[in-house]
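As a representative case, the lines below give one protein's residues and fold tokens.
***
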Amino acid sequence: MSEFISSAERQNNIASLIVRQGRVSVAEIVDLFEVSAATARRDLETLAGQGRLERVHGGAISLKHAPPELPIMERGQEQRLAKQRIGQAGAALVRDGETVLLGSGTTVLEVARNLRSRIGLTVITNSLPVLNTLSGLAGITIIALGGMLRPSELSFIGHVTEQALAEVRADKVIIGVHAISLENGLTNDYMPETLTDRAILKAGREVLVVADHTKVNAVAAAFLAPLSSIQVFVTDDESPADFLEALRQNGVRVFSS
């Protein structure tokens, strides 16, 4: 078939095939289009570069666009059991005596709930729900980052928050994201918060991203950071195995609960 169509036509056909069936393997492209495995891989790399698919080991999958993020009070019940397990797993990676920076969002909040009995922790946060969850506990010192309150997320963002972040350092940063993919890295859907989240990522020696499977292989409007900016990914057991393996191959420690 390859001798009768151009590479651009073949790539369009491959993209259409992925839309119809959700994924395609290199071997399948070789059989269908009578091309070499190297050509098939180049086609997939080209399409991934155009943002038309998500490249995975052995092939590609359709690129899922993350839906708009609901306010935090409405997201509490979404993937609740998965987030609770992720919260337990994320908290287990925090040692007593450490300084940890907790970002905003429902999954990070579950981490905070599992830190309430810890001793000697210092917690830095821009999340009002995290402040409320951990305040008044004898074993935890709270550093609250001020700034402009984002009502839907109950988080503090903006210039004042970023200035405060420049003055603190943490052993670990634990942050949630709206979407994560191999090609597009970490993305969120609220652009004004992006600079604050980037400042959060820079404030710790180790960055842990906590996200359930619905955030995986998805992309949102605002680019936050490449995958190389994180060291640990904590998710639930429904996240795709090939995605998790790709993270491991890129040096990211993966915990799936």
Notes: The longest strand covers residues 170-176. Residues 64 and 233 are 19 Å apart (CA to CA).
